[in-house]
C-alpha cells in the first residue's frame, strides 16, 4: 500500500478559494476539517466521516464515532443514493459504500466542507457547515441528472445518535441498550434519549424535501451481520419506519426523486441541538418542546436561506483573516500564515486538545497549559478578544489558592485532575504568559483587576493580578535541592516523570535520606520559563504602580538566572532536569537522552546565555545532535528500554511521541531562539521543515493533513521516520505562528505599539505585512536593499521618520503606512 502512496498525489491548495482540494478519497489517514465557530462544532472528514457536539465533546455529544477504525473513519454524515430502476446504490461521499466513483472531489474550506462526486451520470454535491451563531449544522445537498433520460432515484440519509455522555455511551451497554427514545413528526426525527433522567436537551434531524419513509433503529436499518456499506434498507430500497425503543438510535430519511435530463434538485438537511426553554425545564419527563425547533426549521429548510448563510460564513472568515496578512518571497509561508495557520489557531483556541481524529473528547477535556498557549497565537484575532479575555478569567478561576491548578478540566463542570504529590508544575506560569500576550495586543490592563475565584469556589474571588502573583509564588515556594523549581508530576513534557520511585536497591530512598519523599526532582525548563514569564510580569507590575512587586519579581528572576547558570549548564548545552536522586537528565553523563530540545529554546527565549556564548553553543548542539530533515527531535539518543525513574517518557518505542520523536511544538522555541541569536537563515530553515505546505509533496510519508500542523512526527529511530500523528489540535499551531510572524518577520506587539525587528534571510529583498492593531491598520513594507539578515536602519511612519523600532499604537481607526529600512545604522 505504501508504494502506491509514493506514486500518488492526493490533492492541491486552491489559495484563491482558501480551500484544500482532495482529489482521491483514499487518503493515508482521514483528512478532516471542522465546522462551527462558537458552541456547536463538528468534525468532517474528506469522505463524510466524523461527529458533532454542542460545547462539550463528552457531555453533549450528538452523534457517534468509532475510534481505532482509522482509516475506515465511520460512522459519519451519510447520504446513500439508489437507482430505483437498477437497484444499484452508492455514497455521495464515497464512504461508506466505497463504490469506485467516476469523479470525486472534497474541498475543505474555512468552516465548511464540500464533497462533489459523480457516478453513472448522477452528480451530487453536499456542503456541510454551521451557520453563524446557530446550534445546528446544515447539509446543503444538490443532485443533478446528467443522463439523457428521466431517472428515478432514492436518497437515504444516515446519522447515528450518541447518548450525550460519550464515555458512558461506549461503555455502559447494559443500561444504554434499554434507554433510547425518539419521536418522528413532520419530516423531523427527534432524539430525546435522556429526558427521563431529567436532561433538558435533545437533538433533531430534518429534511426540506417530503419523506416517503424513515428509520430510527440502527439494527433495522442496517440489518443483522451487515455494515454501513450494505444496509438492508438501502439495498432493498424500502425504509421500515422503525421507531427505536431501546437499542441504537439513528436518523434516516427516505426521499424519492424523479429527475428529468439536466434537472438539478436542492435539498437541505439540518442536524441540530435544542433545549427546552428555561421556564419549562424538567416540568414533565419525556416531553420535549418542539415549538422553537419548528420555528427554526421554517426559516432554515430553505436553500435560499442556506445560501445566504453560507455567504455570511465566508464574509466572517474574510474579516477574521484580515487582521494579519503577509506577502513574502516564499509561497509556503504566505499560504500557511495567511490562511491555514490562522484557521487552525481559531479551531484550536475553541477546542484545545479535546476533539479531533486522535482525541476522543472524552478524557482530556480542556488543558490549562494548552489553552493558555493557544491564546498566544490567537490574540491578534480581534473578533476573539472578548472570548480570550473570558477564557483567561475562566482559567484563573480553576487555579487553587496555593497557585497550582488543575492540569485539565471539563468545560461544563470546570473540574479536572491534579496529580497526587504535585501537579504539572509548569502550568501556573502559562497563565502569566497568556495574560501578558493579551495585554500587549490589546493594551487592556484592566483585565488585571477583573476578579476570579479559586477552584470556582464562591467567596474566594481576587483580581487576576493576585492570581498571577500566586502562580509566581507557587514556583518560588516549590524549589528543590539546587534551588531550581520542582518538576512535580511533570513539566511541559507530561511524560518526563522524574519523581517515580526506583526499584533498584542501590537507588532506593533509604540511601538518599534527604530525599525521602521522592518529590525533589527539579526542572531546568521551568526555571527558564520562570525567567521568561516573570521578567514580563515585573514590567507589568511597574506599569500599574506595583513597584515593590516589580523589584521583588526581578530579584527572583536574577536569582533563578544564576541558578540556571550554575546548575543548568552541561558544557555544550543546557541540562533538562535533575531526577529525584539529584542525577542529571539531558546530560553528556547520560548514555541515553543526553540532550533535550526544550531548555535550549526556553533558556535562550529567557535571555540566558546570550551574553556569554552559551546560547550559540546550545544551538550548535541542537543542529549537531537533534536536527533532522523532518524537524528537530525532542531528545537524543532515544531510550531503548523502560526506566522507572524516568517514567512514561521511556515507555514509548524509540522515535515515537515523547521518546525521541520530532515533537513539533518546541521546534518553534528553537526557531525563536535562532532568530533572537541573529541566525535568521537557520531559523527559517527549521520553520520550513515543519511548514505543512512545504511538506505536501511528501504526503505519502507525512500521512496527516498537508494544510495543518501535527503534534508529532516520527523520529529517525522509528522505521516510520517522517510520519505525523495527532494533527489539528496542537500547541504547534500557535507557537509556529508566533515564531514566523513575531520573530522571523519580526512584527510583534509591545506595550506601547508594534515592535518591528525582522530576522530574515539575506537573499530576501523584503516583505510586506498588513497588521490590524488596536483599532488601526498598519501597512508595513520592509525593504532589505543591503541584504542583511537583521538590523533596522530606519522606520518611516506616514512619511515621517521615528526614533527606535516601536511604531506607536495610534488607536484612531485609520490606515498608517510604515516603511522599514533594514541595514546597519550609520
UniProtKB/TrEMBL annotation:
The keyword Glycosyltransferase is annotated on this UniProt entry: yes
The enzyme's E.C. designation: 2.4.1.20
Gene Ontology molecular-function annotations: carbohydrate binding; cellobiose phosphorylase activity
UniProt-listed GO biological process terms: carbohydrate metabolic process
Entries under Pfam families matching the protein: GH94_b-supersand (PF06165), Glyco_hydro_94 (PF17167)
Domain Glycosyl hydrolase 94 supersandwich, first and last residues per copy: 18-279
Transferase listed as a keyword: yes
All copies of domain Glycosyl hydrolase 94 catalytic, residue ranges: 316-746
Key words of the record: Glycosyltransferase, Transferase
Protein name: Cellobiose phosphorylase
